[in-house]
Amino acid sequence: PQPELPAGLRLLGCLLDLLPEAPHHWRHFSHFFETALAMAQLGPEERGWMLRRRFASHLVDFYLADESPCVGLPAHLDEGRAAPRRARMGDKCTLPQLEHMVALLSLLARAAHRHEPVARTPLSLEGRLLHMAADEYQLLGHGALLRRLLKDGLHVAAICDLCEHLCYESRDATETALHVILSGIDTMDNEQLGPYLTTFCHVVDLADSLAAWRIDWALQRLLHVISNNMRYKQATISCMRALLSLCVLSSRPRRWMLHQRALWVKEWLLSGLSSQVRCTAEHFIKAILAAESQPSAAAAGAAAAGDTAVGAALPPPPAGLAAETGAAADFGLTGDAMATEVVTEMAVEPSGAAPELAVAEGGAGACSPALLSMYEHLVSHVVLRELRELPAAAAAGAQASKHPDDVPPPRLAPYFWLCAGCA
Known about the structure:
Layout: H1 7-18, H2 30-40, H3 44-52, H4 55-64, H5 99-110, H6 134-140, H7 143-152, H8 156-167, H9 171-187, H10 194-204, H11 211-228, H12 233-249, H13 251-259, H14 265-269, H15 275-297, H16 299-305, H17 322-325, H18 337-345, H19 369-378, H20 381-400, H21 413-422
Helix pairs in contact: 2-5, 5-8, 7-9, 8-10, 9-10, 9-11, 10-12, 11-13, 12-13, 12-15, 12-18, 15-21
């Protein structure tokens, strides 16, 4: 006779058997997945049993219901389906409490070998990695699952861990995840952008051999999405804030943005459809220049002073725009106060006195290469030509509009403040 399973594994078996009935009780089942997560956290024996029983596949099938891609998997995944269409969870006002389920999916993914040339990632659990079926591993990175998780916004930290783990040293997984994320940024309302922007920043900031390719691939497409949606003021500002938090905390995306300034500076600073967007663009440029100049400006003192909050290097924020743009959302990359400060400062408008940007070591006449390059771009013939054409374009727009008073004249103060600050 086969030896009897330990009590913990028998409990997990009961949970798996009850899973098909769980959708009918979605208002009261938070402890159901909390129990499963607690059991998985006990050790590798419990996690190994869950992987052998394809627990993750069952969870995905349960979560996506009629949208589940699991229909092509082995027949045991369809056990317990009492009807062609399964009970729908949640309503217009309330989402099912599935945070522990998302954490469990992330935990099982990080406990197993990846089906990639690099089997382990920095997020993998310590110790011996377990075996997960190849189709189950692919299921965890399926576009339908990522799309639903981000739309629901359940346990964003666990979603970020899962995406980072799947995208590490993998072009295919990176393209799948970023395509879902960018599609959401392109289509969702401003209030729903938080999970998408946070996950985007985590994936783009991955440190592996694909980092340069990933930054170029992702940021080019994000700039395209922002360009296509400039008429949505709040969403545009939210994207700028998230991008600023990424650029201030990480040098690679910051230097990419500075190098590719021709793709965004003119459009954000001069063609922005609202004063809030243009002022946000001004502060964005000042902040990344200050972050880029900081190492050279404090080369001697940084080692002695130790780590310093990035927010201390940013220009001081005068008040003015915060009341119009609303409270700044926290798109922090690490959950600490530093990223929150960076994002919060994006909600303010510079006053008439332009904050000073960092000056390199060596006297008042010296400046960082990034600052010099940005100034040369701001006064280049391309930008100046656009500047000369703005009044005529605004007049033509007002003339063509049925409501000329609704077409605002061009306001160029952020551009001139920035030129003065760089000079």
